[in-house]
Design goal:
Blueprint (H helix, E strand, L loop, with lengths): L3 H8 L2 H19 L21 E2 L5 E2 L10 H36 L3 H14 L3 H10 L5 H27 L3 H8 L4 H37 L11 H8 L8 H28 L6
């Protein structure tokens, strides 16, 4: 139950307002923008490296300029936004589903089952996430599914630790013990009493993890290990233009700025959700 005073403070918290507005702006542009922009793959070598606000011979406005192949930067930015956001959301869902399930199992079955799960978690956490992601994606076929699968495999451990800690606390509470005493099955106890309470901290973790997933995806794309070459992504746009920073600064500044704004929005939103949903902060 969320304390009313904490909820009132959260509604007035500028972090939540700013984070929500920025994130909605990025998501809205990614969804609604592409139909109104030129094709992100259309090349015009005669109009390459043109600055923001340039109009080509047909009168088409290139609001954010063109890249080294004459492609519209705004169109590629919107396409990259859709790809990066979709990968971030889907990878969080995959990692959250795997991690939460294993965390609940580790908390309920504290014998060899929980021991094996947590030893796997400890081993994986000893590797830097980006290094592990590079190792996994390098041996698989490049593609959207590969990136989502890789990020899901890399990111599930934090959900497992959080879910296990919550289950260990919840399983000893009176309402869970009472449900077991009246004959409720273990599955009923998990679905009815444990899972709803576990999802609260998991949701907070997911809001921060989404930012980490987007950073990792952008890093993979920057290294050429993400989506296939030519597919617009924020990291790929920065990688393609990093050698032309002094000649065409907007090619790096535009995707880099969009990535920065998105990460700030997700972190602001995560802080706000933590303040609303964490009972230890409701004082």
């Amino acid at each position: 139950m969320i304390d009313r005073r904490a909820a009132g403070r959260a509604r007035r918290d500028l972090r939540g307002i700013v984070g929500s507005c920025l994130l909605l702006l990025v998501i809205g542009a990614a969804i609604a923008g592409p139909p109104f922009a030129p094709s992100p793959d259309h090349q015009d070598l005669l109009g390459r490296l043109q600055p923001p606000g340039w109009r080509d011979g047909t009168g088409t406005l290139h609001l954010l300029g063109t890249d080294e192949l004459g492609r519209d930067v705004l169109a590629r930015l919107l396409g990259g936004s859709r790809n990066s956001l979709m990968i971030g959301v889907l990878s969080v869902l995959v990692a959250g589903a795997i991690g939460t399930t294993l965390g609940i199992a580790a908390g309920l079955y504290r014998g060899w089952v929980g021991g094996v799960i947590m030893r796997v978690v400890d081993v994986q956490m000893s590797f830097p996430p980006l290094v592990m992601a590079i190792a996994v994606v390098a041996v698989l076929t490049p593609g959207l599914g590969t990136v989502i699968f890789t990020l899901g495999i890399v990111g599930w451990v934090i959900y497992t630790r959080v879910a296990r800690a919550e289950v260990l606390k919840l399983r000893e509470l009176d309402f869970v013990q009472a449900a077991r005493a009246i004959g409720a099955t273990e599955l009923h106890v998990v679905i009815r009493y444990i899972l709803p309470n576990v999802l609260v901290p998991v949701l907070v973790v997911a809001s921060f993890a989404a930012a980490q997933m987007i950073i990792t995806e952008s890093s993979l794309s920057f290294l050429g290990l993400g989506l296939p070459v030519g597919t617009p992504t924020w990291g790929g746009m920065i990688s393609e233009s990093r050698n032309r920073l002094s000649q065409a600064w907007w090619l790096v500044a535009v995707p880099g700025g969009t990535l920065l704004v998105t990460l700030l929005a997700l972190n602001f939103l995560g802080d706000w959700l933590r303040d609303v949903l964490d009972p230890t902060l409701q004082v």
